[in-house]
């Protein structure tokens, strides 16, 4: 047992971190291991790899992800701000390098290989961007004379422009939704929020008009007869085949033909083999993580911690909701991973970084520490 009287960094972390939230995240990670084992072998076999290639890599990425998650959860709000600034700057530089040197796959440049590792820099940019935007909004509330909101708009335009150039409209919409939610939480006028939504809708319409693969996906969603809907149709069949309790581990049919059964459509594979009951359990885990974080954020006296934790929770929850909605044919197909469930090294490590910051920002801290952080944050030049 860890005594409350111990004054070690670990004991202080253990008694201040939200252990229920941490437990839910660990359960989600373990569920990802099980579903990766169920969904990935047929994909690996089809492309001539060892049957457990993707599963082994999933587990391999899980260890550093967990280390990142726990390590980041030890950080103070000040350290989180500084780390987010560094991660965002590095991510933006890598996105620019990807646009210049990354390979083009299906009309997009989203990956760059460094030291033999494929990196999708937009994944790490997302949580860092949310934290920086939250800090700027909190500074705007404390010091109205500071052009913090304009700076927040500036980094939004920078990141969105780079993502559109890849192009990656799924991540772009996720960033815009998270930023808009933060904008609203920070107390900005509703007319500006509606204006942002209008700009996003206009951007989506422009993408429909001028980007062929975006137009194709939207047309297939609105009228399935207009194109190839094999993946979403197979995913829906998987839900139907699975019923409430599923066909049993390893008995799924959809994963034998679904090209992205271990990434975008792992939720459908889980439904077929383990049933709708498992899907509801996964949905409940995501809902618990988001709502628990939002409730802890609301109780925080520190504006930055409140905004950043809420923004990260919304980012996490919206990404999960988009993936599950695509599997259920409620949204057009997008390349969006299911947090901690889908295969993907960059995605998993970046999610661990974001969730680690959520845990750090929702830790119980003495009031004197919160007031000290707020005073320091109000000091000019503070980061």
From TrEMBL:
Its pathway? Cell wall biogenesis; peptidoglycan biosynthesis
Compartments it resides in:
Cell membrane
A GO molecular function annotation here is: lipid-linked peptidoglycan transporter activity
Topology relative to the lipid bilayer, per the entry, is:
Multi-pass membrane protein
Q: Its Gene Ontology biological processes?
A: cell division; cell wall organization; peptidoglycan biosynthetic process; regulation of cell shape
Q: What is its EC number?
A: 2.4.99.28
Gene Ontology CC, one term: plasma membrane
What sections of the protein cross the membrane? 20-39, 59-76, 83-101, 146-165, 177-210, 265-291, 303-328, 340-361
Sorted alphabetically, the keyword list is: Cell cycle, Cell division, Cell membrane, Cell shape, Cell wall biogenesis/degradation, Glycosyltransferase, Membrane, Peptidoglycan synthesis, Transferase, Transmembrane, Transmembrane helix
- Listed InterPro entries: FtsW, FtsW/RodA
Q: What class of enzyme is it?
A: transferase
**The organism sits in which domain of life?**
Bacteria
- Please report a single Pfam family linked to this protein: FTSW_RODA_SPOVE
**PANTHER family associated with the record:** CELL CYCLE PROTEIN, PEPTIDOGLYCAN GLYCOSYLTRANSFERASE FTSW-RELATED
The text of the family note is: Belongs to the SEDS family. FtsW subfamily.
Q: Which NCBIfam families match?
A: ftsW (TIGR02614)
Q: What is this protein called?
A: Probable peptidoglycan glycosyltransferase FtsW
User: What is the organism of origin for this protein?
Assistant: Rhodopseudomonas faecalis
Taxonomic classification, please? Bacteria, Pseudomonadati, Pseudomonadota, Alphaproteobacteria, Hyphomicrobiales
